[in-house]
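Re: the request from the purification team.
They wanted to know what the chain is likely to look like in 3D before they choose a buffer screen. I agreed to run a prediction and write the result into the notebook, where they can find it.
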Amino acid sequence: MPRVKRGVQHVKRRKAVMKRVKGYEGGRKKLIKLAQTAETKAGAHAYRDRKNKKRTTRRLWQVKINAAVRALGTSYSVFIGGLKKNNIEIDRKVLAQVAEHHPKVFKKIVEEAK
C-alpha cells in the first residue's frame, strides 16, 4: 500500500483550532493540546448555557409579572389561572414587557383575568 502523508490536513485542523481559541488566556491560546481541550470545554459550556439562558429568562419574566400583579392585589398563580380560564393566550415574555412598560394596559389584562 502506498504511504499517505497528511501534513496538509494536520496543519489545517490545527490552524482552525488555534483560530477558534484566539483570545483565550495563557497556554490555552498558544499550545495545541491545551487549546483543543479548552475549545471542547468552551463548546460544552456554550451548549449547556444556551439552555440555562432560556430557563433564567423565563424565571425573570415570572418575577416581573408576579411583582406587577401583587401591586394590583392578586397573586401570580391566581392571575395565570385566570388567564387560562378566560382563554387569554399571552405568553409570559409579552406579559412581562407589558407589565414593565405599559402598566395601564397590564391593569386591564389583570381585570380581564379576574
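For the purification team: The chain has a mean pLDDT of 94.
Please add any questions underneath this entry.
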